[in-house]
Amino acid sequence: MEPITQQLKTVHLFRGLSPAQLERLGGITQVAHYNTGDVIFRQDDPGDHLYVITRGQVQVEVTGDDGAPHAAVFLGAGQVFGEMALLDQGPRSATVIAAQPGTEVCALAQAALAALFEQDTGLGYVLMRNLALDLSFKIRHQNFGL
Amino acid sequence: MIYTVSYVVVGAKHPGAVMNQHERPVVGEQVEIGGAYFEIIEVKRMLPPRDDFEFLHATVRPVGADGSA
Questions:
Q1: Residues B27-48: tens digit of each pLDDT
Q2: Nearest to B17 by CA among A84, A145, A70
Q3: Cα nearest neighbour of A141 on chain B
Q4: Which of A73, A77, B51, B68 is deepest in the core (most CB within 10 A)?
């Protein structure tokens, strides 16, 4: 298995970080594995982690006013989820479910990330810049699907 | 190069996917999204590339159980 820093290098969220900064991020990263159908978190849960998919796929689904869950998007390797709660400290806006066996995600705790940003504002700037681009890309994906 | 691809499904009610891959998607190839298979029918650049990352849009359609599109 690749070292975690090698995997993080292939994720756009971490584009532009130095090897030393990737090492520091690797130090606060927890790796978790899920099978198809496992719920990673549910809509309206409190959100205190950001997740990066390093293997497999997840399904993001939103329960609307009709009470039924609707698939919003599938996300694969290299994609980030849980970032909205990280940015606005609100509850989870969607339920995320593993969609492939052996789905692997890296979890980064909001508190640990905030501490890292305080220590290294350059790292914080790069992550926030990349996070903004990722959100923009997801909005463009949604717009194409309309 | 790492390709961040937005897969948008036509011909079925499906939310599509966003994923990274090391190979550029090619028209005619198949991609698996959430356990179902889709044929790529169009690929175009969505955003300018940044460093080793390229941002693409791919339109796909469902593939039948017999592999037909």
A1: 999 999 999 999 999 999 998 9
A2: A145
A3: B6
A4: A73
